[in-house]
Amino acid sequence: ATEPTIVETIKAESPRRPTTFGYQKFYAAELDKKHQDKSYRYFNNINRIAPKFPVAHTASHTEEVDVWCSNDYLGMSRNPVVLETMHRTLNQYGAGAGGTRNIAGNGQMHLALEEELATLHRKPTALVFSSCYVANDATLATLGAKLPGCVIFSDSMNHASMIQGIRHSGARKVIFKHNDTADLEQKLAQFPKETPKIIAFESVYSMCGSVGPIEKICDLAEEYGAITFLDEVHAVGMYGPTGAGVAEHLDFEAQQVSAKSGSPVKGSAMDRIDIITGTLGKAYGVVGGYIAGSTDLVDMIRSYAPGFIFTTSLPPANVAGAQASIAYQKTYMGDRRLQHINTRALKQKFDSLDIPVVPGPSHIVPVLVGDAGLAKAASDMLLVDHGIYVQSINYPTVAVGEERLRITPTPGHTMEQMDHLVGAITEVFDTLGIKRRADWVKEGGRAGVGAMASREAERMAPVWTDKQLGLLDGTAPKTLCSTKGDRAIVDLKALAEAQRRFDVTLGKAGFNPVKDTTTSPVMGHTLAHGVNVLHPDFQVPTYLAAQA
């Protein structure tokens, strides 16, 4: 027999090396679970076209689709004053912030935005984060950890960012039934009044369209010694006379009368909320998040929250664009009015065809499908066969069996696009055999659909009243009609007001004068002349006019 080599001898005499963990096999197995339960998420290549929004192109630049699920609720991502402000800021201050807020990333634009936000919510101060996910996580984690023996009461349908913040805090968590103030009170009563408590909830719940009982929760907070944490992410820009959210909307007339003062309306719902959080990336069309509250509260979060301290600051151009968007929406209600008018119209069309819409008083239109596979198939069919993009929503975003198509009208959608959507949804429901409302009634209801045999009993009064929308006095904006050549409106008074915010930091905007006294198309918009144009030198940006 051949003598073993030295290497073979060493291997034979060495202790056997243990088998390492099968990482790749584990990853594949976890993904297979998602495929098996139909919850695996597919991301479509959708590229919104600013001059044509809500139109986008797919991976092919020549294939255009109508977008019906964007959180850019008002189309502010393409508003001329937002783009013009961002261009000028980019040219003057560059692309990035240069560091954290503590190291080179704290500039005039950031401070001005925080002042704008504080005024919007009529709070002493505000603090900007990289996103509202980070704002919610950082604020709840810091508060829950710092308040001694804190108990956080969380609505069962709260967003993942709030759930994560509560988890990171290490505080005791008590979950109450969605929007159920009786259940909340029963749970609050179990703790001494001197125990620090936070009630965390949302104003608009984005997947079902329900609205939180803000005033009743404020009552309970005052009675049981808690502070309130209100997430207005899906409401800022969309509700209230200045777009501050549902809390502002609840005292619409009082807030409207004193809109320019910036001082809180004492005893109003917004005044009673301790901490308001919001986003700059949905109705305001840019990116970022924030909190607004008392000076010491906000300063404590600024001083202790790792999610704020150790992350690079938002770029100046994004911050300036966000401020321009907020300033514009503070002055002009037309966009949000038209969005809610279009939402009403779409819900009525679906109702007439027995398409099941989860009942809710907000701007969200959740069309119930009730099956993950069917929801994905419906989304694919709408995109491929009808040129309509509506993403399917499945677990864990919604409960298993409550899968849906989440539709969000914008003021930019036309009558023709709406009719096309309704016709396509109807055809897809027929082709795939998706249940209508009548089918859910027979099964006892699902996700609020068909729980009551009567449609009237199931309907909820919308947050915006007919009077607030201008439907009673004839001032309501009209749904756009493409056959008539309608374009989205840009209000010059609001545009000038937004521009004025930057007269010091960027200098007065230098554009070519608009001579047309009726309309002038810019990026698919119509400029609304005849209003009280406050800025005597307003002009149309040349780079925008060239794209008209």
Topology, please?
Layout: H1 6-13, H2 23-36, E1 47-48, E2 55-57, E3 64-67, H3 80-93, H4 108-121, E4 125-129, H5 132-146, E5 151-155, H6 160-169, E6 172-176, H7 181-188, E7 197-202, H8 214-224, E8 226-231, H9 246-249, H10 252-257, H11 269-272, E9 275-279, E10 289-293, H12 295-304, H13 306-309, H14 316-331, H15 334-352, E11 365-368, H16 372-386, E12 388-389, E13 392-393, E14 404-407, H17 415-432, H18 437-442, H19 455-458, H20 466-469, E15 488-491, H21 492-500, E16 512-513, E17 521-522, E18 525-528, E19 539-540, H22 542-545
Parallel strand pairs: 3-12, 5-6, 5-7, 7-8, 8-9, 15-18
Antiparallel strand pairs: 1-2, 2-3, 4-10, 9-10, 11-14, 13-14, 16-19, 17-18
Helix pairs in contact: 3-14, 4-14, 5-6, 7-8, 14-21, 16-17
In brief:
By secondary structure, the chain is of the alpha/beta class. It is globular.
Structure explained in plain terms:
This protein is α/β, with parallel strands linked by helices. The protein has 22 helices and 19 strands. A seven-stranded mixed beta sheet has the order 4-10-9-8-7-5-6, sandwiched between helices. A four-stranded mixed beta sheet has the order 1-2-3-12. A hairpin with a 6-residue loop joins strand 2 and strand 3. Helix 3 (80-93) packs antiparallel against helix 14 (316-331), helix 5 (132-146) packs parallel to helix 6 and helix 7 packs parallel to helix 8. The longest helix is centred in the middle third of the chain and has 19 residues, at 334-352. The radius of gyration is 26 Å and the shape is globular. The termini are far apart. Residues 511-521 and 529-548 have low confidence and may be disordered.
